[in-house]
Design brief:
three-stranded antiparallel sheet; 111 residues
């Protein structure tokens, strides 16, 4: 794997590793696991909230989904985008998963 340097002297591999330490970011990756097309940010928040609460998406209260949505937008999706796990367009609220076949997609087993 090629190594890219960040301004703070971390490698891309280190950034990818630290991006998946957080349980919510792992839930995002789990929710996107079988996706190959663009996913709306709110729909993703519903899936993540369901995973975190071990419930069906319809059973998760709207307030919980709103809390997840806020943290995805401000924290988790930008970090996963920076690490190459997905592409996040905050302007359109679209999340595009990177498939395993993509040269840009990091694999969790690469660490």
């Amino acid at each position: 794997m090629s190594v890219t340097r960040f301004n703070d002297d971390r490698t891309l591999s280190e950034a990818r590793l630290t991006s998946v330490v957080d349980p919510r970011r792992r839930a995002v990756l789990t929710a996107l696991q079988d996706e190959e097309t663009v996913v709306d940010r709110r729909a993703l928040a519903e899936r993540v909230a369901a995973i975190e609460n071990d419930a069906a998406p319809a059973d998760v209260p709207d307030g919980t989904v709103d809390d997840v949505l806020l943290s995805l937008h401000h924290v988790h999706l930008p970090k996963l985008d920076d690490a190459g796990y997905l592409a996040y367009d905050a302007g359109t609220s679209e999340v595009t998963p990177r498939t395993a076949e993509s040269d840009e997609a990091p694999l969790l087993g690469d660490f």
